Sequence to fold (398 residues):
Amino acid sequence: MDLRQQLGQGRIDLARVGEVRPNPAADLPFIVVDAAGREIEAVSVFLRDLQLGDARAATCRSYAHDLLRWFRLLAMVEVAWDRATRGEVALLVAWMRQAPNPQRRRRRTDPGLCGAVNLKTGKANLAAGYGKSTINHTLTVVGGFYDFHRHFGAGSVVNPVPVGAQRRQLLAHRSPLEPAPPVRRSPLRQKVPTQQPRSIPDERWQELFDAMTCTRDRALLTCYVSSGARASELLALLAENIDWQGMRIWVVRKGTDVLTAVPISPQAAVLLAAYLAEAGLPPPGTPVWRTMSGDSRPLSYSAIRRRLQRANVVLGTNWSLHDLRHTTCARMAGDPDLTLPEIQAVMRHAHISTTQQYMPPRLDDLIDKLQAHYRRPTPPPTPAPGYDPADIATVFGG
Fold:
């Protein structure tokens, strides 16, 4: 079996050559280097142009990792980046569909449970491999990389990432006021199923809250579930952006530099005040959420996610930080005094159709009603008016 067949079947991993490095230059926060530690200039030029379009540093890092994976594959099959074809792109997709994702390698995790449904939460565990949306994102990044260089007469003559002709034809010239017409997926693109948002039921929320071992974690989770803020938004909260009297906090909205007000509950304000009384106020201009051991430093997303993972091990659940945002929206959707536009304003959804996903009743809330429905005896059939019951019994028996 040759190298390409082994890669396509996921039997071997990509050689871990090169890496994504932080860059001290202000115009490019991250760079990609090859096996010799040299900066890949073709990638840097593309990422620098991305930064000029006001992309966030996290977006630059995400694109850099996707392109690093692509260049690792090309290095293994010994193909220059400007000579790549659709065959190499198909090989990358085949490898990502079969190979295990290093991000899934967690301690104390049973590989046999990957992809199985957690009976307590109703959520499926993450699969062992790369997600379909991750594969599609990689195709988008690689395709954009070659489109950029082709504009300047570099790279492959034909973009190795295929795009369906029907999609180009239907989406090329249309009015922005008209809805996007349905088109077939482009070749190699994965079908991503639509998933309903999952929120935490009240009894499960209390279990999760009790599993937190310190005031900081309880305050953080309560602020999440009452404000609906995203994980990165709340972690960057500054002390000077807390409005104690107005019961709200100001966070930097995702993808922008704009401060946006979000509400917090009285319980969240009390716990937040208790946490600051224990830990002390942070220096001006630094986040309020800080580590509890060692040198005081801002709390990272990985650290709080790890705390949540420990609680999941104890409870036998698989909740995520984003489930707290779903819980906020689901609770507001169940309040008859709140309208749909009001919920959209609090959650800061760009489109009201996103908020509408939370309006259908949750299965967890219907369990008791459904059990009562199953236990209710079926009423005997009655003939329609005008029919003699004796005649019905003669014809159909009874």
